[in-house]
Amino acid sequence: MSRLLLHICCAPCLCYPHQVLSDEKADIAGFWFNPNIHPYREYQARLGSVRDFAQNHGLEMIYDDSYPLEENISLLLKERCRACYSTRLEITAREAVRRGYDGYSTTLLYSIYQKHDLIRDLGTAIGKRNGVEFIYRDFRKGWEEGRAKAKELDLYRQKYCGCVFSERDRYLKNKNQI
Predict the structure, then answer these.
(1) Which long-range contacts (C-beta less than 8 Å, at least 24 apart) are formed by 72-76?
(2) Which residue in 18, 48, 61, 141 has the most C-beta neighbors within 10 A?
(3) How many domains are contained in the chain?
(4) How many contiguous H segments (helices) and E segments (strands) does the chain have?
């Protein structure tokens, strides 16, 4: 893989994939597009943490910090995780093609809480449709290492996935209330 555009969901999820890809001498750039994160203060905290990480680690970044709230909520009401993944992967794939990257991937593949099969399937289909390869890498084996690194770097560490539904769900004691 010559050039990879890496969608970044948050700085803590970037720590381990960035280290692995850097060790492999991969030519990567980060891409921020996360209109799923609510509320807006949470969005700003995560974006600021990514900016700090990128600056401190010399990571080239592309930021699409548009925040189409109404459109995103409408999609999330219909399909929730599928819509969230699809939206971010679609925009990342298009950006990769527009800027001449050979492939794209996402730091969502680091999280033990994300739906890897769904991300892989959507990423592959979206990549084919856009003419860019989706690179699936299972970074979950570095979960503890990445968490330790994020803590060491004093990165902002969120307590939920990002969407308003996941924020609500973290407070519900009985998940059957959902």
Answers:
(1) 72/35, 72/36, 73/164, 76/36, 76/163, 76/164, 76/165
(2) 18
(3) 1
(4) 7, 5
For the chain, 178 residues long, the average pLDDT of each consecutive 10-residue run is 92 97 96 92 95 98 90 80 93 98 98 96 98 97 96 87 74 63
Q: How far is CA 108 from CA 11, 70, 176, in A?
A: 11, 23, 26
| Domain hosting residue 144, numbered range | 3-177
- Torsion angle of alpha carbons 18, 141, 101, 22, nearest 10°? 30
d(CA 148, CA 64): 28
* Rounded Cα distance, 86 and 120, in Å: 11
pLDDT of amino acid 171? 77
Strand order in the sheet with 3-7: 61-63, 27-32, 3-7, 103-106, 133-134
The sign of the CA dihedral 104, 114, 83, 69 is: negative
The whole-number pLDDT of residue 173 equals 64
Q: Please give the C-alpha separations between residue 127 and each of 15, 95, 159, 176, in angstroms, as whole numbers.
A: 24, 11, 30, 36
Question: In the prediction, which pLDDT does 167 show?
Answer: 75
